[in-house]
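I am still learning, so would you mind making up any protein sequence you like and the tokens describing how it folds?
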Amino acid sequence: MTPKQALKKIFQYFLQGLIILAPIAITVYAVSALFNFIDGILPGIIEKLFPSFLGTDGQGRPIKIPGVGFVLVILVVIFVGYISSSFIVGKLVELFDKILERTPGIKLIYTTIKDFFEAFAGKKKKFEKSVLVDIDGKDVWQIAFITREELHEFGLSEYVAVYIPQSYALTGRLYFIRPDRIRMLDDKISSTDAMKFAISGGVTVIDEENP
């Protein structure tokens, strides 16, 4: 084996190792960063409001037990979700919701974030109808999701709103388009697979046996 062939082989091994390790490392980093962020929410609040509640270590710094903050935050979220189903608490949440939606300045931020979360996990899920859409009319199709089927307020009663996610990004574009330039995908692949395929730039393999 010549030195050139040996370098080429080493480079191939490097790429193969990178393909294996990079997704694992990035996933571990993202999960640990999210864990540390959530884990520090309540302890940080307790530290500011009640500095001596958690005690201090030998250097006078507040003691932090890894994982406790994460568990507490998860329990608080579950508890809020549970009590919100009751009539009285539900009415209070509804009242607070209306106040935030009518407060100038806060309204834009609050409603945008609220609609974003509800689009993925709330009762108003918007990314369940995956389609193929021809935006430019040149028989070039893109994966999209129908988010609104009625656009009367825009004066476009014959149009629907579609969201096209961008590859390797959390962003996308919104288009108003006629339904005759849309092909439904619900009977072919799931909305989850369609989203993964679009975000990955088309490199994700779709399992045809589990649409």
Notes: Helices lie at 3-39, 41-49, 68-83, 87-102, 106-121, 191-199.
